[in-house]
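Need a sequence for this fold. Nothing fancy.
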């Protein structure tokens, strides 16, 4: 009998590109999640996959924007579709957020023709945070792109999103790795934590480093507390270090750093499936 797999993809900015390798490992094992939950970048990657995009297509999209080791940021302007990405990475010093994501999300979903949750091939739950009552909000019906925008709306970077009279911000503020909202009848639950690590240093951090790292310290605290109450069958942490939140142009390096996660996941899945069948 086919096993029901639940997959939770966590938030972590650009490091979340490594989620693609987790999905690729499942593809190589001829396994497909029955249900996906996602926070922030995990919501984006999860939605792309649930909409029918292959991991090869996802890798191509992110690598299209990636810089080689011998290239500097000025080479970004030579990339195809760069103006779609510029809305995402170029600050705007007005309004309620520094960055915009609408055009980028529209571009990413152009090829899959899924604009609503009901059009997805695999059920998806997206986590956002209600700014005013400080509660978790689970989005699983209605338009897809506003839900992803809400889940990715990191305070200060992205403008909050209003959905059904709720002002929503980044889901990582309440549930960085949402394995607890997967259906209870899953035979196997897999959670992927991509917050990652930073090299220990004695230097005083910049303002942006201080803000983002403090946010991730709080996220790690939330995760530790939650793991004491319940845990998924498989908990993965791709080995990605020293990648900042918006460094999506380091996609090639992220894939390289995280490549061992595929082997680790396959081994853990085989162990779990063996125990299930015994």
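Here you go.
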């Amino acid at each position: 009998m086919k096993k029901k797999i639940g997959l939770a993809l966590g938030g972590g900015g650009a490091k979340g590109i490594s989620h693609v390798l987790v999905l690729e490992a499942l593809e190589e094992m001829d396994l497909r999640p029955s249900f996906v939950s996602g926070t922030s970048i995990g919501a984006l990657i999860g939605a792309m996959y649930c909409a029918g995009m292959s991991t090869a297509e996802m890798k191509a999209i992110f690598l299209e924007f990636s810089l080689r080791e011998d290239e500097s940021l000025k080479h970004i302007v030579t990339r195809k579709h760069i103006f779609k990405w510029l809305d995402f990475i170029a600050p705007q010093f007005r309004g309620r957020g520094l960055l915009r994501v609408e055009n980028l999300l529209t571009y990413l979903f152009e090829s899959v023709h899924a604009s609503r949750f009901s059009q997805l091939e695999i059920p998806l739950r997206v986590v956002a945070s209600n700014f005013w009552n400080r509660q978790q909000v689970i989005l699983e019906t209605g338009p897809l792109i506003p839900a992803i925008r809400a889940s990715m709306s990191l305070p200060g970077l992205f403008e909050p999103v209003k959905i059904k009279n709720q002002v929503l911000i980044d889901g990582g503020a309440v549930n960085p790795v949402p394995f607890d909202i997967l259906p209870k009848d899953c035979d196997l639950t897999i959670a992927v934590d991509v917050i990652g690590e930073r090299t220990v240093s004695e230097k005083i951090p910049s303002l942006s480093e201080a803000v983002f790292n403090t946010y991730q310290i709080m996220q790690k605290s939330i995760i530790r507390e939650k793991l004491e109450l319940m845990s998924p069958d498989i908990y993965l942490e791709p080995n990605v270090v020293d990648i900042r939140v918006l460094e999506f142009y380091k996609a090639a390096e992220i894939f390289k750093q995280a490549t061992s996660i595929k082997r680790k996941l396959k081994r853990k899945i085989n162990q779990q499936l063996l125990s299930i069948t015994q």
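For context: The chain has one domain: 5-277.
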